[in-house]
Amino acid sequence: MIHDTKNVGKPTVLTCRFPTFYGCLLHKDLSIIFGTLLLLILGMQYNDFSNIQNSIKQSGQMTTVVKAVARQLKVSKQDISVNSTTPNDNVLVKTPKGFFRVDYNTDGSQFVLEQVILHDSDAVKVEGEK
Questions:
Q1: What does the alpha-carbon distance between residue 7 and residue 9 come to, in Å, rounded to a whole number?
Q2: Please, are residues 70 and 76 in contact by the beta-carbon 8 Å criterion?
Q3: Angle at alpha carbon of residue 106, lines to 124 and 62, rounded to 5°
C-alpha cells in the first residue's frame, strides 16, 4: 500500500523506474526471480530429456546383448529373460539351457557368459512369463 500525504484524495500515479523494451518493469527483483525459476525449469527439462536418451541407448545395448546371447547359446530370442533393462555387472539371463551371469569387460564392449547353478531354480518366477 502506498501512503502519499501530499496528494490525499487524488489518484496515485506510479512512475516507471525500470523502462524496458516490453514496457514498464516495476519490480526488478520479481523479474530476476522469475528468470531464475525459468532457467531452473529449463534445466530440469533438459535433464529429463538427457535421462530418457540414456535410457533408450541402454535399452538398445541390452537388446544387442540378448541377441548375442541367443546366437551364442543357439536359442530363440523370445526364450530369453533378463533381470535388468540396463547393462551392469549384475545381469542374469534365464534361458532354456539354464541361468547365466553376464560378465562385461572393463569398457563394456564385450561380455562373457558364466553359467549359474541355482539351488531351487523352480522357485524363480519371471514377471510376464506365460
A1: 6
A2: yes
A3: 45
**Whether residue 42 has pLDDT greater than 70:** yes
Task: Judge contact between 25 and 31, C-beta under 8 A.
Answer: yes
Model-wide pTM > 0.70: no
Q: Which helix (H) or strand (E) holds 94?
A: strand 92-95
CB neighbour burial string for 12-28, b if at least 16 within 10 angstroms, e if fewer: eeeeeeeeeeeeeeeee
The backbone torsions φ and ψ at residue 19, rounded to the nearest 5 degrees and listed phi first, read -70, 140
Contact residues for 26 (Cβ-Cβ < 8 A; gap 6+):
14, 16, 17, 18
| Distance between CA atoms of residues 91 and 93, nearest Å | 7
Burial pattern 72-103, b for ≥16 Cβ within 10 A else e, equals: ebeeeeeebbbeeeebeeebebbbeeebbebe
Name the nearest CA neighbour of 121 among 97, 88, 90, 85: 97
Task: Report which of 113, 64, 118 is spatially closest to residue 87, judged by C-alpha positions.
Answer: 64
In whole numbers, what is the pLDDT of the chain averaged over residues?
78
Q: What is the pLDDT of residue 9?
A: 63
